[in-house]
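Sample entry (86 residues):
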Amino acid sequence: MKVVYKPGNAYEEINCYDFREYEQGIVLHNEEGYNIGYVPHEILSHIEPHPEETVVFGSEETLEVRGSGGEDGTTEESNSDDEDDG
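Predicted structure, serialized as tokens:
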């Protein structure tokens, strides 16, 4: 992914594999999990996935990742209009 930030008058970017968010900013990691940078929230602009990291929502693969089905293959539904039996 690409982290874009603006420390001054121009935007800069850092390519990283992963990041972890903390109270004051984000720490960037490489593929081995080592810290490769830190960006405070005040200068963070946005984070962009690389084309191969893009997720298409609504695809079958995304639904499997999100866990749309139960252990037995059924889907869970929530209905706020259900009445209490008691």
